[in-house]
Every structure is written in structure tokens, then in C-alpha cells.
């Protein structure tokens, strides 16, 4: 078995695609005579309103003094750095991300690997004089960073008491615990600040493979003809705290999987991929701690085994994921795939004019904030495709060790928000199915084949 694994690694190395390869070279005929699609309903338009909430005072109820509209001429958000380059917005992709100051160590590597525009949103706590002073110094340091083609903004978090943060702090018995961050609000801000038609939302503790940006840009001629397309990039995690393994390519990832240094995110390798060791156990380190490996539902729907097998053959392009979980059938939820949380390339506005759904800002702190978004996209009729060869790697970082009653209680609270969100989405299913039918009628035969199957570009001689 060991020799077989080595052979597969050599094959994966042998079939690396020519760096000059462009997905547009694929023999896929795409009709350019696309008919006009119907205008979206008013219910679809409402997702385009720009209203931001920094704190919740009840379930799905924003605190009155923490609700903000607009991103200019405000006191709660500040531009730190903006040196974005001119671009054609219809044929470019912006990486949109957010993270606190202690996570910026990964941004240096992200910036080296992602050659396109980036929007970075940094939450800044300013509820004490000490924090405010430290934050202002950090902002001045960021201004000196050699980050090109980057917009970095600071969002000031001044509240200390709200519906979730107060009980969380009380259960921890630590009055110095900062307020829980409005993660989905930060994601919405980052997406709204992007000027390109396409965005790739990603958490700041993940790093893309080299060349992901150029690959996503080369997909645009294809996905612009797929209504409501979401291109999924599989994500993994490095298991070495002191010397994290962050692969530059699929071939490097394959070797790391064989060595047990990397695994699918929060999942034992053998659960999703056959023939690989379960992964090394993280050594005790003051820098990071061993994560749980029980959240395979968060990634398994991405289709890791098919992705691995086809990528090892050198295939490019993307394939469609099973359609049974794209729409909540007849108002029922498939709980086997409910907690899926993919990272996706998305279009900000469809050809119908319908805007990209917004992250639900009722989710604060950890748990279900990305899960809820995938559910919403499913309810709105999005089609999901997995991108071969592409990958993200989670870089270990400081983790809290006191997973006490405070975290369990907060998880329960966020699950209630999730369940309410799912119930609210049920009426959207019938409307999205109707819109998908109207969209389908306008597509050419070539475009229908593209929607159904994705793009296969087999540049390999290995079968």
C-alpha cells in the first residue's frame, strides 16, 4: 500500500498542468447570444439594502444605537489603506476577508499568493482607553505595510453589553471578556466594499494555493452563463502548530496528506478520503491546540474523494455537486447536509439584476454563521460546483482552552437563530424554483450542458 501511495504522488506530480494553461482553451462552445432574463421580484431586491448591525439586543433584533447605514462619512468605519489598482470589474475577482488584529500574521502569506484585489475588514475594540490606544498604533503600523492592490478598513466595536455578549461574559466569570464580534456584519461590509462583479469570501485564517486568483478569473467566461452559480473551493487544515504546512499546489497537498500533516478541515482524513493516514496528532504547543475532528458535515458535501481523484489525473475545471441538496425540497431540510459551510466564488449581481443574498447579521460570535449562508443560497436556487486542483489551507492560531458552559450556551443560542432562519426561508423555495425555471428557458443548448455538468478540461495523459 505504501508503494502504491508513492506511485500516486509521482503521478500527481507528473500531470501538473502547464502554468500557461487557461480554462478558456477548453473545447466548450458557449453561446454568447443570451436572452434578457426577467426582472427580479421585490423580495429579491430587498437583499441589496445596505444596513449594518454591530450588536443584537434580542434574537434577530439589532440594538437601535448599533444599526448603521452606508459606508461613507461615518464614525464607526475608517479606511486604513486603499491602493487598489484599476481593473475591469466584470472580469475580475476580489478576495474579501475579515479578522482581528491577532490574525493578521496570515494576511502576509495571503497577499503574496493572491495577485488580485483584496478587501480586508478589521474589527477594532475601542471600549477602553488602553484598547483604543493599542488599536490606533496597530492602524498606523498597517498603513506602512507593503500590501498592494488592497483596501483595508477598520470597524470600531464600542459596545460592551448586548443580548449575547453579556450572558457569555457572565458564564465565563470574566468581566474583561470582549464583546462577541458581529462576524456576518463584517462579511457583508467586505463584500459591499468590493468593486468587482465577482467576490471570494474567505476567513483570514485560511490561505489559498498559488494561482487560485488566476484560475478563478479564467472561470468567468463560463460561470457568467450559469445562473446563480457558486464555485466551491475545498478547504483543509494544517496539523503542525510550530511549522504549519501550507501547500502551494495540489501536488504538495497530496504529499502532505500522505504524510499525515494535513487533513480535510475538522475531519479525520479517512472519513472523506480513502487510502490516507488519519493525520498526525497535534503536539502540545502554547501556540495552538488540537481541534475537534467531529465536524465532517461542514465539508463532506464538497465531494472530496471525487475532487482528489480527478485532480490527481490533472483534470481542470469544475463539476456540479448533487442537486438534491441545492433546494430545500417542498420546505423540508435535509439535515444530513444542513451544516455544510463551503468557501465559494460568487457573483454580486445576477443577470436578472437580483443581488447576492446577504449574510444574516443575527449571528454573532462563533457557530453556524457560514452554515446559515449556504442554506440561504440553497433556498434561493443556487447551483454548486467544486473546483478541481484548487484548495484553501487553515493555518493554526491561538485557540481558547476554556470551552466551558459559556461556549455551549452560546452554541445553543446560535442554533436557535439558525432554526428560525431555516423556517423563514421556506417561502423562498417556491419562488426560487420558479425563477430557475424561467432562467433555464432562456439558456442555449450549450449553456444548459454547462449548467448541468460543469467544465471538464482533461489535459493529462494519465487515465
What proportion strand?
A: 15-25%
Distance between the termini: 20 Å
The total of beta strands comes to 18
**Helix and strand composition category:** alpha/beta
Tally of individual helices: 13
Low-confidence stretches: 1-25, 27-48, 283-287, 325-331
Question: TL;DR?
Answer:
The chain has helices at 2-14, 42-45, 107-113, 129-143, 165-172, 183-193, 212-223, 250-259, 269-272, 304-312, 369-379, 405-442, 445-453, and strands at residues 51-53, 56-58, 61-62, 67-69, 77-82, 93-98, 118-125, 150-157, 198-201, 206-208, 229-233, 235-238, 262-264, 315-320, 343-347, 383-387, 392-394, 454-458. By secondary structure, the protein is of the alpha/beta class.
3D structure, described in words:
The protein has 463 residues and is an alpha/beta fold. 33% of the residues lie in helices and 18% in strands. It contains 13 helices and 18 strands. The chain has a 10-stranded mixed sheet with strand order 5-8-7-6-9-15-11-16-14-18, with helices on both faces. Strands 10-17-12-13 form a 4-stranded mixed sheet. Helix 5 runs antiparallel to helix 12. The longest helix has 38 residues. It is globular, with a radius of gyration of 22 Å. The relative contact order is 0.18.
List strands and helices in order, with pairings.
Elements: H1 2-14, H2 42-45, E1 51-53, E2 56-58, E3 61-62, E4 67-69, E5 77-82, E6 93-98, H3 107-113, E7 118-125, H4 129-143, E8 150-157, H5 165-172, H6 183-193, E9 198-201, E10 206-208, H7 212-223, E11 229-233, E12 235-238, H8 250-259, E13 262-264, H9 269-272, H10 304-312, E14 315-320, E15 343-347, H11 369-379, E16 383-387, E17 392-394, H12 405-442, H13 445-453, E18 454-458
Parallel strand pairs: 6-7, 6-9, 7-8, 11-16, 12-17
Antiparallel strand pairs: 1-4, 2-3, 5-8, 9-15, 10-17, 11-15, 12-13, 14-16, 14-18
Amino acid at each position: 500500500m505504501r508503494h502504491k501511495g508513492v506511485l500516486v504522488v509521482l503521478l500527481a506530480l507528473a500531470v501538473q498542468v502547464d502554468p500557461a494553461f487557461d480554462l478558456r482553451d477548453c473545447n466548450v462552445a458557449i453561446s454568447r447570444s443570451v436572452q434578457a432574463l426577467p426582472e427580479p421580484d421585490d423580495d429579491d431586491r430587498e437583499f441589496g439594502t445596505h444596513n449594518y448591525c454591530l450588536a443584537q439586543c434580542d434574537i434577530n433584533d439589532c440594538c437601535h444605537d448599533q444599526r448603521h447605514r452606508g459606508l461613507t462619512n461615518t464614525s464607526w468605519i475608517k479606511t486604513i489603506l486603499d491602493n487598489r489598482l484599476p481593473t475591469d470589474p466584470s472580469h475580475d475577482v476580489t478576495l474579501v476577508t475579515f479578522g482581528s488584529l491577532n490574525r493578521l500574521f496570515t494576511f502576509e502569506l495571503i497577499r503574496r499568493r493572491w495577485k488580485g484585489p483584496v478587501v480586508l475588514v478589521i474589527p477594532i475594540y475601542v471600549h477602553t482607553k488602553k484598547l483604543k490606544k493599542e488599536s490606533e498604533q496597530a492602524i498606523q503600523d498597517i498603513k506602512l505595510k507593503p500590501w498592494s492592490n488592497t483596501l483595508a478598513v477598520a470597524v470600531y466595536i464600542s459596545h460592551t453589553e448586548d443580548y449575547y455578549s453579556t450572558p457569555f461574559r457572565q458564564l465565563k466569570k470574566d468581566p474583561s471578556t470582549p464583546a462577541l464580534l458581529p462576524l456576518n456584519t463584517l462579511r457583508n461590509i467586505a463584500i459591499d466594499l468590493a468593486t468587482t462583479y465577482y467576490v471570494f469570501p474567505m476567513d483570514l485564517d485560511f490561505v489559498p494555493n498559488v494561482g487560485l486568483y488566476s484560475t478563478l478569473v479564467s472561470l468567468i467566461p463560463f460561470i457568467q452563463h450559469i445562473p446563480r452559480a457558486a464555485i466551491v473551493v475545498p478547504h483543509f487544515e494544517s496539523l503542525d502548530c510550530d511549522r504549519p504546512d501550507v501547500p502551494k499546489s495540489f501536488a504538495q497537498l497530496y504529499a502532505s496528506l500522505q504524510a499525515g500533516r494535513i487533513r480535510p478541515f475538522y475531519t479525520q482524513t479517512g472519513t472523506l478520503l480513502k487510502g490516507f493516514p488519519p493525520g498526525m496528532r497535534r503536539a502540545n504547543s502554547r501556540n495552538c491546540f488540537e481541534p475537534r475532528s467531529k465536524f465532517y458535515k461542514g465539508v463532506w458535501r464538497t465531494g472530496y474523494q471525487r475532487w482528489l481523484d480527478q485532480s490527481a489525473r490533472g483534470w481542470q475545471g469544475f463539476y456540479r455537486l448533487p442537486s438534491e441538496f441545492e433546494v430545500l425540497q417542498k420546505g423540508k431540510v435535509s439535515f444530513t447536509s444542513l451544516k455544510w459551510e463551503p468557501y465559494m466564488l460568487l457573483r454580486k449581481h445576477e443577470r436578472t439584476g437580483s443581488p447576492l443574498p446577504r449574510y444574516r447579521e443575527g449571528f454573532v460570535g462563533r457557530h453556524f454563521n457560514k452554515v446559515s449562508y449556504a442554506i440561504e443560497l440553497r433556498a434561493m436556487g443556487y447551483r454548486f460546483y467544486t473546483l478541481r486542483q484548487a484548495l484553501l489551507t487553515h493555518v493554526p492560531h491561538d485557540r481558547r482552552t476554556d470551552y466551558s458552559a459559556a461556549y455551549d450556551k452560546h452554541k445553543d443560542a446560535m442554533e436557535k437563530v439558525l432554526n428560525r432562519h431555516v423556517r423563514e426561508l421556506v417561502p423562498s423555495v417556491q419562488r426560487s424554483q420558479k425563477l430557475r425555471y424561467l432562467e433555464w428557458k432562456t439558456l442555449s443548448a450549450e449553456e444548459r450542458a454547462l449548467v448541468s455538468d460543469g467544465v471538464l478540461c482533461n489535459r493529462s495523459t494519465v487515465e
